[in-house]
Predict the 3D structure of the following.
Amino acid sequence: MSILVTGGAGYIGSHTCVELLEAGKDIVIVDNFVNSKPEALERIKAITKKDFKFYEADLIDREAIEKIFAENEIDAVIHFAGLKAVGESVSIPLRYYHNNITGTLILCEVMAKYGCKRMVFSSSATVYGMSNIPPYNETMPTSATNPYGRTKLMIEEILKDLCISDSEWSTVMLRYFNPIGAHKSGLIGESPNGIPNNLLPYVAMVANGKLKHLNVYGDDYETPDGTGVRDYIHVVDLAKGHLKALNYAYNNTGAKAVNLGTGHGYSVLDVVKAYEKASGKNVPYVIGPRRPGDVAASFADASEAKRVFNWEATLGIDEMCEDSWRFASNNQ
Ligand code: NAD
Ligand code: WQD
């Protein structure tokens, strides 16, 4: 039996594939490379010295997805494939709704047809919206402020309905906080195209001299130093959480939302300091206006993951920055 990993060539997917292979699992990856490169697959093989089947296909292409299920015995799916740029989702919402939601619907339909009813889905802490007070726990009301976030919310609702309609389904909806860092090998990590939107890839490009300075989006929040606070989580800790979630999905049915975060918040300036320490480089910054849609602080109540998966994050901010820097400086 194999586990299908959608979006396995991407940032979180590639790290999870490494953990799955190292745990002795058989995997099949599907990706259309809309936001990744084939190189990542070679690097997963180089790190693990293990092989796997790969299909270059779009989730929207039902025939291609059916072919994967027809040719392999898939008994669970880890579903990463989706578009994730918040700003872009505001300018091209239909592309986001189509890719993320239609893609997931087709995937679920094909899974049901082949009797595969276990899914671990990449949701996001963005579903906690703007009005909850952190630490966020899974019982809080959810909402979204942009089309990207709405795709995550809608998919969570779809997966809940699916589990209500058929009690054999098991879906674990993992609400990731802010994944950063890279694999220790320096071979896989996050390398967005163009100018990064997210903090860490931007800081990395300032540290290696590709960008002049960081624009800090506001220093007048009600936080210890006035800059935004987030729950940064090492991508390898996050990847390991998926193995625990998968195990949960094999042993339980129904829809379950679980936070994957550390429970600790760091400000933008904390991250800048940690990155300077890890890289030995200066990270100059300029304080600018707030970015629309940002909350002052976001961090997890991480106790549910500990309770149901016996999982908790182990790597701290220094290791996150060291590993990010190793990848950034190896892959200039
Ligand atoms: P990523 O862009 O690096 O990986 C996503 C992968 O999916 C890419 O390789 C892309 O080519 C592929 N893909 C996208 N649409 C596809 C389609 N229709 N068919 C086939 N492949 C497709 O992103 P990531 O950071 O690894 O995120 C993985 C998942 O986690 C996404 O669903 C994202 O929304 C979610 N998530 C990410 C973060 C984050 O900060 N990185 C936070 C919360 C949730
Ligand atoms: C972190 C902090 C910024 C860039 C986003 C998505 C969310 C999730 C993760 C997928 C904030 C500040 C940033 C910069 C800055 N993705 N910042 N200068 O906004 O918490 O979450 O990625 O689900 O949905 O919204 O992450 O890395 O963009 O920002 O000052 O150039 O860094 O204001 O306080 P965010 P981020």
The mean pLDDT is 97. The chain is about 40% helix and 20% strand. Residues 84, 86, 124, 126, 178, 197-199, 202, 214-217, 228, 230, 268, 291, 294, 298 surround WQD (ligand 2) (CB under 6 Å). The first strand starts at residue 2 and ends at 6.
